[in-house]
Amino acid sequence: MMEHVVLNNKVKMPILGFGVYQVTDLAECERSVLDALRTGYRLLDTAAAYQNEDAVGKAIRQGGVARDDLFVTTKLWVQDAGYEKTKKAFDRSLRRLGLDVLDLYLIHQPYGDVYGSWRAMEELYREGRVRAIGISNFPPDRVMDLIIHNEVAPAVNQIETHPFCQQIEAQKFLQENGVQVESWGPFAEGRNDIFRNGVLRSVASEHNKSIAQVVLRWLVQRGVVAIPKSVRRERIVENFDVFDFTLTPRDMVAIAKLDTKTSSFFDHRDPEVVKRLGQVTLAT
Question: At a CB cut-off of 8 Å and minimum separation 6, what does 5 contact?
Fold first, then answer.
């Protein structure tokens, strides 16, 4: 049975969803989203930067799931930061997805005119064109700055969260300020040899589950929304099967010891990273 979190505006969001990051083959993307919908996923996560919103939209139309039962997220890329450009980018994303209303719209990176973007997103939210608005990759100081200078606080912050980068302090801060944590890269994209990790293997063996299922269950028990990605149907089904067991306090303590407190990818405050991401432009 799917569990849900309740956002700061009372909107319910599934705690487990399906992501499509790096699924660049559009036919494969469409097929995998269809497999996810047939498995039972109702939260779908894409982004303008992934350049597969069209494929996600096609799968939604074929999936046979009532629109009210779906929770669809997409994201605003850096090149479209600013008030006017955000409005246009939102319309493009909605058109590609084939939707009239979006469930969650996120600022993908904390760069550029995020305040102009946020004003546009607040308007879209008040107009009922999006049910919730949020952010991605924002560190706590940037989150607080956004909260205190705007009328609508972000409902979600989607950040790197996995056993090697657990975001314990960030989650505590976000919870204190009513912002839901959502994990991207729950499996660290296979880094640090996660699928052979001894601690995770031991916990998985005790519960007769896979390491991937243990990681997702660990996030669910922390109240963190997760959006695992796979294009293999058997993995899509496996990743959904995490609601029939519970990790023990001992398991949770053992996994907590894996935390390196650093990113397995890159530092969003590194000037070279800021420059590189800020220069990525998408076809419109």
Answer: 12, 13, 15, 180, 223, 225
